[in-house]
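Narrative progress, year one. The postdoctoral researcher (J.K.) led the effort to move from monomer predictions toward full complexes, under supervision of the PI. The following entry was the first complex the group processed end to end, covering 188 residues in total.
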Amino acid sequence: MTFEVLVEVRLLAGIADPQGATIERSLPALGFAGVSAVRVGKAIRFCVDAPDAAAAETLAGEVARRLLSNPVIEEATVTVCQPSPTATGGTQQP
Amino acid sequence: MTFEVLVEVRLLAGIADPQGATIERSLPALGFAGVSAVRVGKAIRFCVDAPDAAAAETLAGEVARRLLSNPVIEEATVTVCQPSPTATGGTQQP
């Protein structure tokens, strides 16, 4: 079964985020008020072939830990969306 | 009230994703099989001061449209998480 997985990689609290700070400084010039604490991370989506959701989550977590995040400065959250036989994606097979 | 908001910015289907392709090519060398259709996007989190969740979503959607995404090649999804008086964040106020 094919599961669609979302891995969100965020900078740990306390790690400087220049991208987020730049966005935050730009907002008043565009007329936006009341937005604060902007943090920019990565959202990586992929499809996993696995027998069940738990196996998909385990595999995706391992991929996130070993390849997608740097645990010194980042944390990763894995979300298994649903079995996706018809999910859109670049190289996915039906 | 302060709401924590997640904006996920993804490349539109059909737009080339070299980062995702590079990750996908790296996986077999690390011993991972069954992962496909890797797409890399951005996950931007921030706090919004708004009277209710609908107003927070409207403001965040406008920020996503005007500042955080390029609609020619990207799409943005806004998720309002919950009122977050105690959420962690760089410059957030209690």
